[in-house]
Design brief:
The complex is a heterodimer. By secondary structure, chain A is mainly alpha-helical. Chain A has 13 helices and no strands. Chain A is globular. In chain B, the strands form two sheets. Chain B has a six-stranded mixed β-sheet, sandwiched between helices. A four-stranded antiparallel β-sheet of chain B has the order 2-1-4-5, with helices on one face. Classes of the chains: A mainly alpha, B alpha/beta. At the A-B interface, helix 1, helix 6 and helix 13 of A face helix 2 and helix 3 of B.
C-alpha cells in the first residue's frame, strides 16, 4: 500500500511538474465551458419562445436537467475520449524509454503496486478534472433550479466513465514503448467502446443485446437520468478489474518472456 | 555473494548468453569484462531479476533470483547502463522516491538521502532537474540511487561510461571504498579500470565466459591487455601454473 502511494504520488507530480496536467485541464474545461454556454443559451431561447406562446404544458416539460445537464455530461464524456489517452499514454512508454522501468522492476516493489500506483496517479488527475467541471453544476444550482440528486448521479456516471477509460488506457500503454501508439490505440479502443451501441439499432437478437451490454453509453446514460443501477456499477467494475488485471499480466510478462 | 551457474539467455533465435558460470564472494569486486555486445548487460539484467534466464540458475546472497525474486531485489543495488532517472524530478525527491521503493522506513528516508548526497558528492546539484544534469552527475545520481538502501550486492553496468578521466578516477576510488563488506560486480570494456578497482576478473566473449581468475594470478607475468586479447580471440585461456 505504501509503495502504491509512493508510485501514485510520483506519477501525479510528474503530470504537474510539466505543463501536461495544466494543458489537459485547461483544454477540457474550456471546451466543456463552451458546451455549457451553448446549451444554456439554447435553453434560454427556447424557454423564451415557449413563454411567449403561453403554453404552460410545454413549459412544464422543460427542465434544466434534460436540456442542459444531461447533454453537457454526454459532451464531457466525449471530451474524455480524447483527453484520457493523453494522460495514460506516458505511463509505461516513458518509463521504458528513460530506463526507469528497470529501476521499478528491480526494486522490491510488487508489480501489482506498480500498476495500482500508476493507475491511481492518473485517476487523481482525472478526478481533479471532473471535480473542476462540477463548477457548471454549481452555477446552475446557484442561479437555477435543477434536480440536484439527478445531477450528482450524472457526475458519478461521468467519473466512472473516466475511470473505465483510464483503466483501458493504462492497459494499452503497458503494451508498448511508444507514446503515439499508446495514444492512438487507446483512442481507437475508447471510440469503439463508445460507439458500439449504435450497432444495437442496426442488428437484432442476441447480438444486439451483447452489443448493448458492451456499450459504455448505454450504462452511462442511466446515471445521467438519475438511475444508479447495480448492473451499470458491475459493468464499470468489470472494465476496471479486467483491465488492471491484464495490465498486471502484461507487465509481468517481461519476467517470463 | 553471487553465484551464476550455467546461465543461458536467448532472445528468439539470438543467443545472447550461453552457459555462463562465475562467482563473486562478499567483499569482492568483480570486474566483468568483454567487448561491446558480448552479453554483459544481459547477464547483469538476469542477476538483478529484470530479465528471466532461458536456463541456468542465479543465486544472490543464497536466494534464487527466479524463485525468491523479492528477497534478491531487496538486497541488490543496481546501476543500469543508462542511469534510470526521471528527467522531470530534482535530485532530492528522486532519491527520496528511490529510498521509499527500496523499502526504507519513512523515518530513515531523510538520513539515507542526506548520506547518499554526501557520499556521491551531489550537494551542489541537489536542487537541479535530473534532465539538466551533465553525464557525470547523472552517473553519480544513478550510483546514489543504487546505494540508497545500503545493499549487500551492487551491480554496476559500465559505471564510468561517459565520464572524463578525472571523474573515472574518482568513481573507481569510490567503488573501491565501498567494497569492504559488499559484493560488487562492475562491468566495463576498459581494462585499466579493472586493474584500478577489481580483485577478480571474468571475461566474457560472444556470450561465453572465456576466463575467470583472481587479478593477482592473472597479471603476475603478463599484462591484462595480453590476457584479454588472447581470451577474446582464441577462447579459454590457460592460467599460469
Amino acid at each position: 500500500m505504501r509503495n502504491t502511494l509512493t508510485i501514485a504520488g510520483r506519477e501525479l507530480r510528474s503530470y504537474f511538474s510539466s505543463p501536461v496536467a495544466y494543458v489537459l485541464i485547461a483544454a477540457f474545461l474550456a471546451l466543456a465551458g463552451y458546451f455549457f454556454y451553448a446549451l444554456l443559451t439554447a435553453f434560454n431561447q427556447t424557454l423564451a419562445i415557449y413563454s411567449m406562446m403561453r403554453n404552460p404544458e410545454m413549459l412544464q416539460r422543460f427542465n434544466l436537467n434534460e436540456m442542459v445537464i444531461r447533454p453537457l455530461l454526454h459532451n464531457m464524456s466525449v471530451l474524455l475520449i480524447f483527453i484520457v489517452p493523453a494522460i495514460t499514454m506516458r505511463m509505461f512508454p516513458e518509463e521504458k524509454r528513460a530506463g526507469t522501468y528497470e529501476l521499478l522492476l528491480t526494486s522490491p516493489v510488487r508489480i501489482g503496486e506498480i500498476v495500482a500506483g500508476k493507475f491511481l496517479g492518473g485517476l487523481a488527475l482525472v478526478a481533479i478534472m471532473v471535480a473542476l467541471s462540477g463548477v457548471f453544476g454549481l452555477l446552475l444550482s446557484r442561479f437555477g433550479n435543477p434536480e440536484v440528486p439527478m445531477m450528482l448521479s450524472g457526475y458519478l456516471g461521468l467519473f466512472l466513465v473516466a475511470t473505465a477509460f483510464l483503466a483501458i488506457g493504462t492497459l494499452l500503454s503497458s503494451f508498448t514503448d511508444n507514446v503515439v501508439i499508446a495514444y492512438v490505440g487507446t483512442l481507437f479502443a475508447l471510440l469503439v467502446l463508445y460507439t458500439i451501441g449504435w450497432l444495437g439499432e442496426a442488428i437484432q437478437g442476441v447480438w444486439a443485446a451483447i452489443v448493448r451490454y458492451v456499450s459504455i453509453t448505454e450504462h452511462f446514460q442511466l446515471f445521467t437520468q438519475g438511475i444508479i443501477d447495480t448492473k451499470a456499477l458491475v459493468y464499470f467494475a468489470t472494465i476496471l478489474v479486467v483491465s488492471l488485471f491484464l495490465t498486471h499480466r502484461s507487465v509481468e510478462s517481461v519476467r517470463w518472456r | 555473494m553471487i553465484e551464476v551457474a550455467n546461465l543461458s539467455k536467448r532472445y528468439g533465435d539470438l543467443t545472447a548468453v550461453q552457459d555462463v558460470s562465475f562467482m563473486a564472494a562478499p567483499g569482492e569486486i568483480l570486474g566483468f569484462l568483454g567487448p561491446n555486445g558480448a552479453g554483459k548487460t544481459t547477464t547483469l539484467r538476469v542477476i538483478t531479476g529484470f530479465l528471466p534466464a532461458t536456463s541456468g540458475t542465479v543465486r544472490v546472497c543464497g536466494f534464487d533470483v527466479f524463485e525468491q525474486s523479492a528477497e534478491v531485489r531487496r538486497r541488490i543495488g543496481y546501476l543500469p547502463e543508462n542511469p534510470p532517472l526521471y528527467a522531470d524530478m530534482t535530485v532530492v525527491p528522486y532519491l527520496r522516491f528511490a529510498a521509499k521503493i527500496h523499502g526504507l522506513a519513512r523515518r530513515d528516508v531523510g538520513a539515507a538521502v542526506d548520506r547518499a548526497i554526501d557520499t556521491c558528492g551531489l550537494a551542489s546539484v541537489s536542487e537541479r532537474l535530473l534532465g539538466h544534469l551533465s553525464k557525470g552527475f547523472r552517473q553519480r545520481v544513478g550510483l546514489a540511487q543504487a546505494l540508497i538502501h545500503e545493499p549487500e550486492v551492487l551491480i554496476l553496468d559500465e559505471p564510468t561510461n561517459g565520464l572524463d578521466p578525472g571523474q573515472i578516477r574518482d568513481m573507481l576510488a569510490f567503488i573501491r571504498s565501498l567494497g569492504a563488506k559488499r559484493t560488487i560486480v562492475l562491468s566495463t570494456h576498459i581494462l585499466s579500470q579493472v586493474l584500478a578497482a577489481c580483485h577478480k576478473v571474468v571475461i566474457i566473449n560472444e556470450g561465453r565466459v572465456v576466463l575467470e581468475a583472481p587479478l593477482g594470478d592473472l597479471t603476475r607475468d603478463r599484462s591484462l591487455e595480453d590476457v584479454y586479447t588472447q581470451a577474446i580471440s582464441s577462447g579459454p585461456v590457460s592460467l599460469p601454473a
